[in-house]
Amino acid sequence: MNVEILEKTDTNLRFVIRDADAPFVNALRRIIISEVPCMAIDEVVILENSSMIQDEVLAHRLGLVPIKTDLNAYNLREECVCKSKFGCNLCRVALTLDVEATDTTTVYSGSLVSENAAIVPVSANIPLVKLAPGQKLKLEADVRLGRGKEHAKWQPVAVCAYKNMPQIKINPKLCDACGECVKVCPKAVFAVAEGKVEVRNLLACTLCLDCVDACPKNPKAVEVTWDKNTFIFNLESTGALPPERILQEAVKILDKKTADFLKELAGEKDETS
Amino acid sequence: MIIPIRCFTCGKLIADKWEDFARRVKAGEEAGKVLDSLGVKRYCCRRMLLSHIEIADEIIKFYEVAGKGKQLRGQ
Ligand SMILES: [Zn+2]
Ligand SMILES: [Zn+2]
Questions:
Q1: Does residue A204 sit in the same domain as residue A221?
Q2: A139–B contact, CB cutoff 8 A
């Protein structure tokens, strides 16, 4: 297997996996979506809320705020040494919010005060509530690690998808560069240059086959297939974790799952799971 | 009511881009170009901002008046 990174930013990772198969790449995708832990607000104690947003709606909004996650310093609640459902310093972070409006104001996620300066919302500019003069908001929120399969707020990614590598062949004997495929392609994969149709942007192809339908020749001058062992994988983090870390964690989890499975096959009972 | 925190479809954080978006569109910029410059690529996220109406701004006027009434009555 061979991995080539196409694009890497703070939140985005796009890469090509070669010599892999669909079950493996799909396992990776599903683990990223439902099993890689990240942090989110889970329980909210509302001490005072005279705003127009109801307590439960506010709690839901808070839950969806992506939180910068530290996977090294914190444990999942169910795996923590404290074995308590209330949590300890290793499995919970408390955030507090205390605002009273004198003018009409918007309360932003930046007003949340964290007990750990590293565990804060991804952005400080998320509007949470609007307050009219005299309205008050006072609450305590518990942040903990969780997994996407429990609630989507613990999903570390927004987009996590793959497609097969497209393979486009233009038959020079049949093609007369009429340009129909260039016109119809929604992703501008083709271009006409010097009386010939060229594939300019292969990776953008979504395999819609519109170019094949549009080709007036019979038999068709353009052929679109895909390589079933090469994948283009796209990952967009919510900002909770860097995308490369999400991938590393997913691989670790997959490794552990396969090791556990082999152990079960060999007839050994695994005490930890 | 108030801008949703995330895109309903894909889960991307969009709430932090709303005020910037609304201000720039009101100032006369083309909405599509503003969305491009804010890095909102997918149409699921774009419709979140494009179709949003901040009703909270209308409702809060009633609370502002109610608050002033209380102040005048010395409560
Ligand atoms: Zn604990
Ligand atoms: Zn979206």
A1: yes
A2: no
pLDDT class of A115 with cuts at 50, 70, 90: very high
Q: How far apart are CA A23 and CA A19, in angstroms?
A: 12
Best of B9, B13, B68, B70 to mutate (most A CBs within 10 Å, chain A): B13
Burial zone of A138 (CB within 10 Å; 0-12 exposed, 13-18 middle, 19+ buried): middle
pLDDT of residue B72 exceeding 80: no
> The whole model's pTM is what?
0.87
- C-alpha to C-alpha distance for A97 and A172, rounded to whole angstroms: 67
Residues A104 and A165 in one domain: no
CATH of the domain at B57: 1.10.10.60
Q: For A151-250, list the strands marked E by DSSP.
A: 157-170, 190-193, 196-199, 222-237
Proximal ligand: closest to the CA of A93: 1
Asked if residue B49 has pLDDT above 90, the reply is yes
- The answer, for B55 touching chain A at a CB cutoff of 8 Å, is no
A263 within domain boundaries = no
Same domain, A69 and A11: no
Distance, CA of A36 to CA of B3 (rounded, Å): 28
Number of domains in chain B: 1
* Peptide bond between residue A37 and the one before it cis (omega within 30 degrees of 0): no
Residue A238 forms contact with B (CB below 8 Å): yes
A163 inside domain: yes
Whether residue B3 is contained in a domain is answered as no
A63 lies in the same domain as A195: no
- Span from the CA of A152 to the centroid of ligand 1 (angstroms): 22
Same domain, A121 and A50: yes
Whether residue B13 and residue A129 make contact (CB cut-off 8 A), yes or no, is: no
Spell out which residues of chain B touch residue A127, defining contact as CB-CB under 8 Å: 2-3, 15, 18-19
